[in-house]
Write a structure and sequence with these properties.
Family: In the N-terminal section; belongs to the N-acetylglucosamine-1-phosphate uridyltransferase family.
Distance between the termini: 98 Å
Mean pLDDT: 95
Number of helices: 10
Oligomer: single chain
Protein name: Bifunctional protein GlmU
Structural class: alpha/beta
Low-confidence stretches: none
Shape: elongated
Catalytic activity: alpha-D-glucosamine 1-phosphate + acetyl-CoA = N-acetyl-alpha-D-glucosamine 1-phosphate + CoA + H(+); N-acetyl-alpha-D-glucosamine 1-phosphate + UTP + H(+) = UDP-N-acetyl-alpha-D-glucosamine + diphosphate
Cofactor: Mg(2+)
Enzyme class: transferase
Length: about 450
Amino acid sequence: MHAHVILAAGQGTRMKSRLPKVLHPLLGKPMLAYAVETALALEPQRLVVVVGHGAEQVMEVLKAYPVEVAVQEEQLGTAHALLQAEALLKDFPGPTLVTQGDTPLLHPETLRDLLERVEEGAGMALLTVELEDPTGYGRILRQGEEVLGSVEEKDASPEVKAIREVNAGAYAFDGFLFQALKEVRNENAAREYYLPDLIAIYRAKGRKVVAVKGVVEEALGVNTREELARVEGVLLSALRREWMRKGVRMILPESIYLEASVELAPDVTLWPGVVLKGKTRIGEGAEVGPYAVLEDTLLEPGARVLAHTVAQGAVIGRGADAGPFARLRPGAVLREGAHVGNFVEVKNSLLHPGVKAGHLAYLGDAEVGEGTNIGAGVITANYDGKRKHRTFIGKGAFIGSNSVLVAPVRVGDGAMVGAGSVITHDVPEDALAIARERQRNLEGYARRKREGD
C-alpha cells in the first residue's frame, strides 16, 4: 500500500513552446500520460499529480485517469511542488513514491525497487544513473548503498566532479516525508526549494538514505526539443522491435512511424516512410506502401494501400486497394475487392464489392453498388451551399468520365451515364442518361477565325 505523487508543474522554458512541457506528445500521447500510466501499473492507493504551469490544459488531459490534482500556484522548486500534495496525503502513513512528469521512460519495476527499499527500513530511496558525461548534474556521494549527499556541479571539487553517478529524480519516502519537506530551505541562487536537500535532512534525523542504480535510457528526462526527439526515438525503436517479433515485416524499419495505439497482425508488410496513427488496425497479410499515412483506419486481411495514400477514419476491405496518391477521408468504406486509384478522394461513402474508381474522382456522401465503374473526373456534387446530400448509384452501373452527379440523385442498377453529363434527375435501371448539349460542327469556322474574321 503506497501513495504516488507526480510532479508536473514546470513551465519547460527550454522547449520554446506555448504548450506546457508535460503535454508535448510522444507517439501521439502526452508525455505526462506515460508517467501516469506507469504509476497506475503499481496500483497505488492514492495518486496525486501536482500541476502548475498551464494547469487548466494539464487537468483536462488528467480527466481520463483516476488521479487527484494539487496545484502549485508559484513554481518555487521541486520540494515546494511536492509539499502541495500534503493537504491530500497528510493522513497517509507512507511509503510515497515521487516521480517527474517529464521522465516518460521509467518502468514500474524500477519504481517497485525503490518502494521495496523503504519497506525494508530505509527512510528514503533515490534512483541514480551513471552518465558518460555528468556535466551539469549533481553528483551522488555514497558509501556502499548508503547515500551520504548530493553535490551540485558548481560546488563540486575536481574529485567530486570525477564521479559519474547522478540523481535521476525518482524517489521513495517513508512517513517522515512532509515533516522533512518543511525543513528544506531556499538558500541558493535560484531561491528555490529542491528535493535533493532531503538527503541531508533525512540523514540528520538518523534515517537511512539509499541509492538504487537504474539504466541511463530509462531515466532520460525531457527539457528540450532535442531530448523530446531522443525519448521518442527510444519509444519508437522498442515499438518497432515488438511488432517485428510478432511477425510484421518492416522494410527500412527506422523510417517507419507508428503509435502505441496501433494494432498489427502477422505478415503485415510496411514499406519505408509509412506513418500509422491513432486506432489504426491492419489485418493479416495486408500491405502499406511507401509514405502512406493511415490514421484511425482499418485494413482487413489482404488489403493494400499503395504509395503516398492518406487515409483517416477509413475501412479498406479484404483484397481491396487504394492508391497511389488516393485520399480516404472519415467514413470512407471500401468493401471486398474495391479499387480506388490515383487522385481519387472518398469521403463518408460506401463502395460495395468490386467497385472501381481508377483515377481523378471525388465520391462524397455516396453509396456505390457492387461492380460499378466510376470513370475519370467523376464528381458527386454533394453540397448545395447549405446542406450535404447523398448520391446512390446501383449495382453494375457505368458512370462515364467527367460526369457530375448533383445530389440528391439516384442512378439505378445497370444504368449508364454518358461522359461529360451533368445529372440532376434520377436515372432508371438499365437506362442511358446523357445530359449535355448536342455536338455541332460549323464547317470552315476555324479557318475563317484564323484569317481575321
